[in-house]
Amino acid sequence: MFLKNKLFALLIISVLGHINQNVYAQSKPSELNTEQKIDALLALMTVEEKVGQLNLYNGFWNVTGPAPEHGGAATKYKHLKNGWVGAMLNVRGTEEVNKVQRIAVEESRLGIPLLIGFDVIHGYKTLSPIPLAESASWDLKAIEASARIAAIEASSAGINWTFAPMVDVSRDARWGRVMEGAGEDPFLGSLIAIARVNGFQGDDLTDANTIAACAKHFAGYGFAEAGKEYNTVDVGLSTLYNTILPPFKAAQEAGVKTFMNSFNDLNGIPVTASEFLQRDILKNGWDFNGFVVSDWASMNELIAWGVAKDKKEAAKLAITAGSDMDMEGHVYIKALADLINEGTVDVQLLNDAVRRILRVKYELGLFDNPYRYGNKRDEEKRTGSQSHRESVLDMAKKSIVLLKNEGDLLPLKKKGQRIALIGDLANDKSSPLGSWRLASDDETAVSVLEGMQKYKGNTLNFSNGPEVFKGTSTFLKELDINTTDYSGFEEAVETAKNADVVVMVLGEHGFQSGEGRSRTNLELPGLQQELLQKVYEVNQNIVLVLNNGRPLAITWAAEHIPAIVEAWQLGTETGNAVAQVLYGDYNPSGKLPMTFPRNVGQMPIYYNYKNTGRPIDKDNNVFYSHYSDVDKTPLFVFGHGLSYTTFSYSNLSVSNTYKTNKEITVSFDVKNAGEVTGKEVAQLYIRDLVGSVSRPVKELKGFELVELEAGESKRITIKLTEKELGFYNNKQEFKVESGDFKIFVGGSSETVLEADIEL
Ligand code: BGC
């Protein structure tokens, strides 16, 4: 193998050159373990080459952030040859990847292979539902399988590192990036983080179809003040330790190879410069031995945050804080070598960062074969294959949440019905792909119209209605929402008039959520609410199919519309999934991973809130915790989701053996009380009634996804241990505090059974 020979030759040179390399003098490279190989390689590297390993460049065409001042293609090529680039992002496809890999491996002095990173967020070419939607399945196996498929496709196109999973807990639907996470709950979020890391990384990272994962954005990004993108974050340590950090810790324990830091500051320190987060917690506290990549240009942004006066100061802050790799910031490459050479920064900090990056490269097997990721034949065979389409269809169906179904309007009858299908989004093949889908082809989703057309027994009349968005909507630009052009409005109302059932597909465009897409209005954009109300005036038999990347405030619809289906953005197979659910070929089983508000003013709203000192109106006056102008409850609670059957819960029993073996065993029966087979997510919550710190009114601590035939019952048993019963107190110690607890069980966070225990 070329690379091995090259390294071996260099090793020999190093020995002959009397460089102090005892390991090399005594052994062949093949006999060295990874750490020894890294030692040996480090000894060969100049300061500039070491800094080069810390440098992550964007590819030459595809930008996922603001374009930097420097770094045109020519400079980047030159730096690749110099060995001053450790990784690239947004280079994809076997040919393109091999082109840059070849320069690094065959033309640079040491020939160290590149990491090739990409935002494989919910699939590569074949798209799964957006991550928030997948999370609504509560189906950890399916979520893991979805990440596996994404890794198989991406790796065949040369990618060996994904910038996923995003594990930011968020309670604020104004923040557009909630589409990319697992919702508001740290417990569910942690399990999903583990499933995704396992899916991407598999059992053996050296397999050519597994890729390194990246837990992002560490940490606090989901708590951006007022849900405004890139905003400041000020949270107490209790929230940090109990709510924000758990999914990151879970990812770390699952062996995630990399972390990405976040754009925000945390309590005054921009995270890229935070030693507290990156060294004290992550590297020293959790023994994380992978590396931390900065977010896009976040090192450079230390200047705009006003904590560094120039790039040099930014580089010093970042390396000291433990930010190992500079993503497109052009900060380390300019300044870090100078800082080391003049003795301002200890070279050990640089060595540590390089070591972490090289370690991941060894673990991926890149030194054995830098071209193992990316194979034209596999790329063609695997990306977009039929079996992958079937898998994402399965995931899409599992992600749908039935929010309301009054009078059993759903499932639709398969024959003899006049169905009116209405809405610009119903005929859209791009929006359902969602945001973060850089490698997929535009206009490749199965639209809801196409999905519905496959059911031939009914008459289907489609009417587009007014456009929701003007022009082409893209990842890079603000969307242009139509609020004035009523073309198609009347025709849609006419179409609805004569139908037995009206299916309306309304909501957000796929590019209305995601990065840079915060909103102050969570209602249906454009003319859609008006259209819904006008249609309702002529025909009340409406099934509303929602498309959205975040919880929406659809209060009027929730009061008036008999059936509401939350269909998010479901990826490539969207239309087939929606049609199969509407027609009852798949019985919906999803549950909301985020609370739906009544209006935007309720933000942030979440189920695991604090009781406060004045939770209820005791004396018929206004002095209790509430709003004067809206009910304080949410529109749809966390964990809510209906089925075409119903489930009942009974016989809750709790065996409390905490004193003897630190365990509580909770058992209960779930029965399918309806007439069709269905799946239910049985949920268990606790409340620690008296703590040294105020505790949430409910915390999810267990769940089981069960499939039951009509009339069938199952006894479910969930164990609670110290891990579930404890929390971080205000000294950041994880403790179980003795005293009274409540246990709750049910099909949503509005639970139906409860028991008391004492620890
Ligand atoms: C985002 C990251 C993403 C990176 C690379 C940034 O703007 O915040 O989540 O991985 O770009 O595309």
Written description of the protein model:
By secondary structure, this protein is of the alpha/beta class. The chain is 31% helix and 17% strand. The protein contains 25 helices and 25 strands. The strands form seven sheets. A six-stranded mixed β-sheet has the order 11-16-15-14-12-13. Helix 22 links the parallel strand 15 (542-547) and strand 16 (563-566). Helix 4 (47-53) packs across helix 16, helix 18 packs across helix 23 and helix 20 runs parallel beside helix 21 (528-538). The model is unreliable at 1-5 and 12-27 (pLDDT under 50). Bound molecules: beta-D-glucopyranose. Residues 64-65, 89, 119, 163, 216, 295-296, 515 line the site of beta-D-glucopyranose (BGC).
Layout of helices and strands, plus pairs?
Elements: H1 2-16, H2 22-26, H3 34-44, H4 47-53, E1 55-58, H5 73-82, E2 87-89, H6 94-107, E3 115-118, H7 131-135, H8 140-156, E4 161-162, H9 186-201, E5 214-218, H10 237-244, H11 246-253, E6 258-261, E7 265-266, E8 269-270, H12 275-285, E9 291-293, H13 301-304, H14 311-321, E10 326-327, H15 332-341, H16 347-363, H17 376-382, H18 386-399, E11 401-405, E12 418-422, H19 448-453, E13 459-463, H20 489-497, E14 501-507, H21 528-538, E15 542-547, H22 555-560, E16 563-566, H23 574-582, E17 647-656, H24 658-661, E18 664-672, E19 678-688, E20 699-708, E21 713-720, H25 722-725, E22 727-728, E23 734-735, E24 740-746, E25 753-758
Parallel strand pairs: 1-2, 1-10, 2-3, 3-4, 5-6, 6-9, 12-13, 12-14, 14-15, 15-16
Antiparallel strand pairs: 7-8, 11-16, 17-18, 18-21, 19-20, 19-24, 22-23, 24-25
The protein binds beta-D-glucopyranose (BGC).
